[in-house]
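#struct-help
A.M.: can someone run this one for me? Single chain, 139 residues.
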Amino acid sequence: MAQEQQNVETLKRRGRRRLVGALALVLAAVIVLPMVFDPEPRGTGSTVNVRIPGEDETPFAPKLPAKKSEEYVVQVGAFANPQAVLAQLDSAKIPHYTEKIQSNLTRVRAGPFATREAAQKAHEQLKSLGFEPGAVAQK
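D.P.: on it. C-alpha cells below:
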C-alpha cells in the first residue's frame, strides 16, 4: 500500500508538470506565433504624408531686411577740447555729434543728413564758418 501511495504521488507530480509545461507552450504559441507570421508590424492607424516641394514649387519667399535710408555725414575735425566748435555749430544750427577716438581726442561730425545734397550744403556752410571739413561720406 505504501508503494501504491508513492506511485499515485509520482503520477500526480508528473501530471502537474505536464499541465504546467502544456500551459507554457500554449502561452508561448499565443504570444510568439503572431509575431512570427505577421510580416509587417501594426501601425498606429494614422499615416503621415510628407511632401518636399521642388525648388520651383517653393511657396516660401524670404523677407529681405528693409533697406535703410542712406545717411550722410561731414567730418568737421578732431579736437582735444571740442566745446568751442560745438558752440559754433549750435549757433549755426548745423546738426552734429561727437565720437571719442583716443584718450584725449574727440571727433566732431556734422550730420547725419538724409540726402547728399543736404550734406553738401552743410559742407559749404562749414567752409564759410572757417572750418576745413572732410568730404561728404555715408554714415
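A.M.: thanks! The beta strands are 72-79, 96-100, 106-113, 136-138.
D.P.: also worth noting: The two ends are 118 Å apart (CA to CA).
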